């Protein structure tokens, strides 16, 4: 992103957080906004625009390195020779520039530079700052920003893995100029003001300052004939659908990195990465404990007392689980290797909990039989509360 945009945009304000907000606060604020504004849930075009802005703010503020760079760029422009809106004339080498207290608008400066090729302003600054103070550096393409998105999966999709289309609204390389920013048939040239370094230095008293080059907006190159589609940025916003492979075994809240699926790089630089936070809908039957698949099976008292074999669903078909006679209610039976696929290969286990279901009402033969059984049980000497609560 161009320095100019960083100077103009208040990402903190976009996310509604203070400039000293913690990473957690930023994440929280973004997630709330993203939920409200995502084009999948909010069809309002204004919301979609806001979503782009908020995503952009988040992509910068969530990355500590980028956030630092952003903060520094803004501080530089706020405190440096380029007072925001006012050109500081007092101390240094700028005496007389802009007249007595005349407002010098940074935007005018940039706009003029962008639209006219900046010849006059370039000469002016070149004269003030001195040319060639910096070693020439090659132009700096900028790697694309990482993107964040969220998706909701069913329990089975999350455990077994799924290939799914994911709709993304993000900047992408301009198809007209193939991301160069220059009108087709032309190409960007090295900025003569900074010799391609993107920064200029000036001396003020005993101190030397480096500032982003205003002529090329810190990019080091100048596009004399900007592409009509993208206005020279090399990037246009588009909604695209990418096919994403969610690996098996992802958990609720997990963030998956998809390399190279993020925002397009500026001027041919590599793309950023896409991070997908997965929300898993709970399942009616299955639960998870790490790589183990959990399931609770309702059983009759007699099935536990006499023993049986239960037919239990798994991720892949059913499995017969033997319940030994005399199994107590709530016991967990483990079936090895029938759980959730592990990232390291293989599967976790299936954990089957047996839970007695009591008939809500018993009548007739069944009730009589149970009465008979109750007598027989007492006669056998079985006391369910033997040794319980000090008895
Ligand atoms: Zn273009
Ligand atoms: Zn420059």
Describe the structure.
This protein is of the alpha+beta class. The protein contains ten helices and 17 strands. It has helices at residues 3-8, 11-15, 23-37, 45-61, 64-79, 106-116, 119-129, 155-160, 301-306, 364-380, and strands at 82-83, 86-87, 147-153, 162-173, 189-190, 199-204, 207-212, 221-222, 235-246, 255-258, 274-280, 286-289, 292-299, 308-313, 318-323, 332-335, 350-356. The strands form seven sheets. Strands 12-13-17-16 form a four-stranded mixed beta sheet. A hairpin with a 2-residue loop joins strand 12 (286-289) and strand 13 (292-299). Helix 3 runs antiparallel to helix 4. 27% of the residues are buried. Bound molecules: zinc ion (ZN) (2 copies). One zinc ion binds at residues 174, 176-177, 181, 227, 229-230, 234.
List the helices and strands and how they pair.
Elements lengths: L2 H6 L2 H5 L7 H15 L7 H17 L2 H16 L2 E2 L2 E2 L18 H11 L2 H11 L17 E7 L1 H6 L1 E12 L15 E2 L8 E6 L2 E6 L8 E2 L12 E12 L8 E4 L15 E7 L5 E4 L2 E8 L1 H6 L1 E6 L4 E6 L8 E4 L14 E7 L7 H17 L11
Parallel strand pairs: 3-11, 13-17
Antiparallel strand pairs: 1-2, 4-9, 5-8, 6-7, 10-11, 12-13, 14-15, 16-17
The structure holds zinc ion (2 copies).
InterPro entries: DnaJ (IPR012724), DnaJ_C (IPR002939), DnaJ_domain (IPR001623), DnaJ_domain_CS (IPR018253), HSP40/DnaJ_pept-bd (IPR008971), HSP_DnaJ_Cys-rich_dom (IPR001305), HSP_DnaJ_Cys-rich_dom_sf (IPR036410), J_dom_sf (IPR036869)
Organism: Mycobacterium deserti
Subcellular location: Cytoplasm
């Amino acid at each position: 992103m161009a320095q100019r945009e960083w100077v103009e945009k208040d990402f903190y304000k976009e996310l509604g957080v203070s400039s000293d907000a913690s990473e957690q606060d930023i994440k929280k604020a973004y997630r709330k906004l993203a939920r409200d504004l995502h084009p999948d849930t909010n069809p309002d075009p204004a919301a979609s625009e806001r979503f782009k802005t908020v995503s952009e703010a988040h992509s910068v503020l969530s990355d500590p390195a980028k956030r630092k760079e952003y903060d520094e760029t803004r501080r530089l422009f706020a405190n440096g020779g380029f007072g925001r809106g006012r050109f500081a004339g007092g101390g240094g080498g700028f005496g007389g520039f802009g007249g007595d207290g005349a407002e010098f608008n940074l935007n005018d400066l940039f706009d003029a530079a962008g639209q006219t090729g900046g010849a006059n302003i370039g000469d002016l600054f070149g004269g003030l700052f001195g040319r060639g103070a910096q070693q020439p550096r090659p132009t700096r393409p900028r790697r694309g920003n990482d993107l964040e998105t969220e998706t909701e999966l069913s329990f089975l999709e999350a455990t077994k893995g799924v290939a799914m289309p994911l709709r993304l609204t993000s900047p992408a390389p301009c198809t007209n100029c193939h991301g160069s920013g220059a009108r087709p048939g032309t190409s960007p040239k090295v900025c003569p003001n900074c010799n391609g370094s993107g920064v200029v230095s000036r001396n003020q008293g005993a101190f030397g300052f480096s500032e982003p080059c205003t002529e090329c907006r810190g990019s080091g190159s100048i596009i004399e004939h900007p592409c009509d589609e993208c206005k020279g940025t090399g990037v246009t916003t588009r909604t695209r659908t990418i096919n994403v492979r969610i690996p098996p075994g992802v958990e609720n809240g997990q963030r998956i990195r998809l390399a190279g699926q993020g925002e397009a790089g500026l001027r041919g630089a590599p793309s950023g990465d896409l991070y997908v936070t997965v929300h898993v809908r709970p399942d009616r039957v299955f639960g998870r404990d790490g790589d183990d698949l959990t399931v609770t099976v309702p059983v009759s008292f007699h099935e536990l007392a006499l023993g049986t074999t239960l037919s239990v669903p798994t991720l892949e078909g059913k499995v017969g689980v033997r319940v030994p006679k005399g199994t107590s209610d709530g016991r967990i039976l483990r079936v090895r290797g029938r759980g959730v696929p592990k990232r390291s290969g293989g599967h976790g286990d299936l954990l089957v909990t047996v839970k007695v279901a009591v008939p809500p009402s018993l009548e007739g033969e069944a009730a009589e039989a149970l009465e008979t059984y109750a007598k027989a049980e007492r006669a056998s000497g079985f006391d369910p509360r033997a040794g319980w609560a000090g008895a």
